[in-house]
Write a structure and sequence with these properties.
Catalytic activity: L-glutamate = D-glutamate
Distance between the termini: 23 Å
Protein name: Glutamate racemase
Largest sheet: 6 strands, parallel
Order of helices and strands: EHEHEHHEHEHHEHHEHEHEHE
Organism: Chlorobium phaeobacteroides (strain BS1)
Family: Belongs to the aspartate/glutamate racemases family.
Function: Provides the (R)-glutamate required for cell wall biosynthesis.
CATH class of the largest domain: Alpha Beta
Strand order of the largest sheet: 4-3-1-2-9-10
Number of helices: 12
Length: about 270
């Protein structure tokens, strides 16, 4: 497989959440071609077993590999926590970047009091991957985690500022805030869709770490280091693939990205 700077960046997630990564990469690297796969038939991943999550990671990587990507971004914290090795193996030497490591690194850099909160799916929180990653960078960091399983369906339904969403968010976040955290990691790529509401509850003293922004910065660093940044001045809309409900995905994309988008391609997994 011959790769070049014009080869695409492949991104996958369990649903629409990874569009936060697409948006961040487009903002930072507008010339990059993006192939995005959202596994809308099997969302959410965070409530599944590790065996199932690892199988899905294998499937998702195989779909992206058909497009010969120069970089694979795992825009799913659950897969980043439990199956990054599967993606690397299936990628046959193509660089792989997980949102978890990028988010952990940015959180450690930004915390002033070494008290960091992490919110994510049950699978991500139970994996203990964020505390391990942060403590490897700074053993002084104390990490407080909370599973927020209802955030993914709320984001998928577009309940961005719904009163029910705010009530649920307070239930999840207030116990974390009681620990005196000064940094909060959105440990699932669906959560930035609810960022405004989360930030209002957390307050101005708490720095919100969006793993999508973190992974965009890391992507630029990796591509530049490999001499693979696309120098073209053309801005191409991402090629969007889903495993179910393309029309619903298209309408949510338009709501989230704020623009009309081309048709979404339906594929089998």
């Amino acid at each position: 497989m011959t790769l070049s700077a014009s080869s695409p960046v492949g991104i996958f997630d369990s649903g629409i959440g990874g569009l936060t990564v697409v948006k961040a990469i487009q903002a930072l690297l507008p010339s990059e071609r993006i192939i995005y796969f959202g596994d809308t038939a099997r969302v959410p991943y965070g409530s599944k077993s590790q065996v199932t999550i690892r199988k899905y990671a294998q499937d998702d990587t195989g779909i992206l590999m058909k497009y010969q990507p120069k970089l694979i971004i795992v825009a799913c914290n659950t897969v980043s926590a439990l199956a990054l090795d599967v993606v690397k193996r299936a990628g046959h030497g193509i660089p792989v970047l997980g949102v978890l490591e990028a988010g952990a690194e940015l959180a450690v850099e930004n915390s002033r009091n070494n008290q960091v909160g992490v919110i994510g799916t049950r699978a991500t929180v139970l994996s203990n991957a964020y505390p391990l990653a942060m403590n490897a960078l700074n053993p002084e960091v104390e990490v407080f985690s909370a599973a927020c399983p209802l955030f993914v369906p709320l984001a998928e339904e577009g309940f961005i500022d719904h009163p029910a969403a705010e009530m649920i968010a307070r239930e999840y976040l207030l116990p974390l805030l009681d620990h005196g955290i000064d940094t909060l990691v959105l440990g699932c790529t669906h959560y930035p869709i609810l960022r405004k509401m989360i930030a209002e509850i957390a307050g101005q003293e708490v720095r919100i770490i969006d793993s999508a922004e973190a992974v965009a910065l890391k992507s630029k660093e990796m591509l530049a280091g490999n001499g693979m940044l696309n120098g073209s001045q053309c801005h191409v809309f991402p090629h969007l693939l889903v495993s179910d409900l393309p029309q619903k995905f298209k309408s949510l994309c338009e709501l989230f990205l704020g623009k009309d988008i081309p048709d979404v391609e339906l594929i089998e997994v």
